[in-house]
Amino acid sequence: MSAPLIQVSTLAPFVGALEQVGLSSVALGRKVGLTPEILGDPESLAPSQSIYRFAEFAAEEVGDPFLGVRLGLDPQIMSWSVVSDALSSSQTMIEFFACFLLNAGKFTTDVDFRLVLGTQISVFERDRGFKPRERPSQIDAFGVGLFVNLFRSVLEENFRASDLLFKVCDPEAAKAPEIGKCGLAKGDTRLLSMSFPSEWLVRPIRRKKGRPAQVKTTKPPSEALITSISSNIRANISDPTFGVPMLVEQMGFNRRDVQKYLRDRGSGLAEMIEEERKKLAGELLEQREASLQEIAGALGYTDVSNFSRAFRRWTGMAPSFWRERKESRKKTS
Fold first, then answer.
1. Are 169 and 57 in contact (CB under 8 A)?
2. Which of 25, 122, 208, 248 would give a disulfide with 15, using CB separation of 3.0 to 4.6 Å?
3. Which residues of 183-199 are buried (b: 16+ CB within 10 A; e: fewer)?
């Protein structure tokens, strides 16, 4: 399974933490492959690895190893729409989780959220569907802070921190004193899980009168969306089955609207995929250590001959000749 895409709006607390101490989120975004256009459009989807790395670097820049958990504990996070909308339409925590699971899925692709009910203990899990290369320590820590915050808010005196057990990829990143006696255990990078007493699910939610749920509207195509599409293409281009249908399914945009937007600019989704392959081919051919077989695989071609034919179509020359010509120009310049 390919790595999921995540909506950039999930980084808002980390962006706010950077700005609060006068640091540039744009500079940090470039460091992890998030352009200013993507960061400027909260509904943009970005590769999960970029989201995870942004959160890790933000904690380093701010100088707070517990940044994620403290952002999750911020009372303002309860106004985040994925939480507040579920709370405003629920009377008990089991109703909340039903709404939360549906809403959370809109912020990412290919991530599975599930609630496993037990007689005594129930478990909430977020399954990324793959194991990230780098530990998403701060994102997991944010989840710890968020759910401690949530249960404290709605259960009040019925909440006991010691009844909560989290399994996260890096327990050290979540050991902020503010979470009290919550249990922290080491899991893997794929799963974040949380176990708690099943009786909490049927307790009434104690909250202030909820505001009306926000009505989400579908944004028209924009340059930020197109940039996000390019980012997704680059992240999945090595998959031989990747094409326009998979791209549309992963990102969930209106294919007809986006195609019209691109046609008005002399392009299309298939052309964008082709252009990303062409760009990446040039980048990889300049790396002498990469063989043609490896480059073909990185571009999603099942054999070198298919790659060579495509490259001839793009440039009018064989990839080996293009590489030699590029190399000779470097030597003479």
1. no
2. 25
3. ebeebebebbbbbbeee
Number of H helices, E strands in the chain: 15, 7
Query: Would the pTM count as exceeding 0.70?
Result: no
Q: In the 8-state DSSP scheme, what is residue 115?
A: E
73: three-class secondary structure by DSSP: helix
Q: Enter the tokens of residue 204.
A: 């009434």
What is the length of the chain? 333
Contacts of 217 (CB under 8 A, 6+ apart): none
Report how far residue 247's alpha carbon sits from residue 110's, in angstroms, rounded to the nearest whole number. 12
User: In this structure, what token pair is assigned to residue 93?
Assistant: 């925590």
**Pairwise CA distance, residues 295 & 281, whole Å:** 7
**Other CB atoms within 10 A of residue 10 CB:** 20
Q: What is the pLDDT of residues 52-101, one digit of tens each?
A: 999 999 999 999 999 999 999 998 888 877 788 888 888 889 898 888 88
99-133 b/e (C-beta count within 10 Å ≥ 16 → b): bbbebbeebbbbbebebeeeeeebbbbbebbeebe
